[in-house]
Amino acid sequence: MPRDPYLIYQVPNMNGGLNTFSDPTLLKDNETPNCQNVDFDNPGKVTQRAGYERVGNEINSSLAPLGFGNLRIQSSGSNYLVVKVSTTFYYLLSTATTTWTAITGVYNASESTLDVYNDRLYVYNPVDDLLEWTGSGAFTAYAAAPKGRFGKMFQNRNFIAGVTSNLSRLYYSVIGSATDFAGAGSGFIEVNKNDGFKVTGIGTSEGILLVHKSDGGVYQVNFDSSSVPSVIKVAAYKGALRHQTISNFENASIYLSSDSVRTIGQMENFPESQRDGELSLNIRPDILALESTFTTLAAGTYANNKYYLSVPVNQTVYNDTVFTYAYGVWSKYQNVYAYGFILWNGYVHFFDSRKAQLYRFNATVKTDD
């Protein structure tokens, strides 16, 4: 009997993603031990990742950013991207994305973090005063506020940690003020001071404030009706090793610990409890093989249904590889040197980790600028 020339082969769903943890002989048909510059975002298929293009002029060809953030003025719709390069801050307005404008003032050349509240941008730094910017003119400095490495606006309060002289302390402002740390209702709380670990980040999950200690776990901070705080340990294993890797993730919070990418969020049917777990099992060997400087360089952001994690893999000076997590699977981007990511004007943007140049991913662009 002649062989049927038409053989039917069902192509499996290819959305298994990157798996460097399992033995290659044990991988599922839709998993791969080695992939790069692809996405698994669409059901059943693998697509080439978006290319990226320049946004704005190059601020400096040899100095990397030292922090950046976004200020959107609700009343006017003005949308600013602000970046710190060396001792100067610059802004780019969304309606004129060609030339960066310097903000008056000279500041310490150390890394800063940024957050927003009531149409104002706040800058945190362990050396400089707390800074406030309204979208015009110079910064206003608040010398009486704590000088912390990072801060977080949450439920009408400003929370600051990473103060050099009190590394396990969380400071909080008066309700309704981001700058008053002396008035009624302000204060500080020690987060398990004697455990030997410093606070390494502040995040949120479903209306809960979470304080991270890299090797000391994650703590939930609550306030009673009299503004008296209390602290409960909600994750005993690992906290974020770096504030810049913490991001809101669906109904939880995602972050990079010293040996894994983890999430923490409310337990189903038990909203008063938090549950943490690892997301990175399939790429655990890659996480464990990161260069030691990832503790001071790594950055992660969840945007457009994807967690972007930038880390140093091939050298120790800057981030040179991006791992992405979307729809339950991992992928890896090469040739993306990202200091950090931000969603701005509908696109995921990133600053180069080697120089002060902004880029954005664009699905219609198939090459890298």
Detail the topology: elements first, then pairings.
Layout: E1 17-18, E2 31-32, E3 38-39, E4 47-48, E5 51-60, E6 65-72, E7 79-85, E8 88-93, E9 101-103, E10 113-117, E11 120-124, E12 130-133, E13 140-142, E14 150-154, E15 157-161, E16 169-172, E17 187-190, E18 201-205, E19 208-213, E20 217-223, E21 229-235, E22 247-249, E23 252-256, E24 261-267, E25 270-278, H1 284-288, H2 294-297, E26 299-303, E27 306-311, E28 321-326, E29 329-334, E30 338-344, E31 347-352, E32 356-362
Parallel strand pairs: 1-2
Antiparallel strand pairs: 3-4, 5-32, 6-7, 7-8, 8-9, 10-11, 11-12, 12-13, 14-15, 15-16, 16-17, 18-19, 19-20, 20-21, 22-23, 23-24, 24-25, 26-27, 27-28, 28-29, 30-31, 31-32
Total beta-strand segments: 32
Look at the helices and sheets and give the structural class: mainly beta
Mean pLDDT: 92
What amount of the residues lies in strands?
A: over 45%
Low-pLDDT windows of residues: none
The global form is globular
Terminus-to-terminus distance: 58 Å
Strand order of the largest sheet: 5-32-31-30
- The helix fraction, in percent, is under 10%
Sketch the major β-sheet.
4 strands, antiparallel
Give keywords.
369 residues, mainly beta, four-stranded antiparallel beta sheet, 2 helices, globular
Report on this model:
It is globular and about 90 Å long. The protein has two helices and 32 strands. The longest helix has 5 residues. The chain is 2% helix and 46% strand. A hairpin with a 6-residue loop joins strand 6 and strand 7. The model has no long low-confidence stretch (mean pLDDT 92). It has 369 residues and is mostly beta strands. Strands 5-32-31-30 form a four-stranded antiparallel β-sheet, with no helix packed on it.
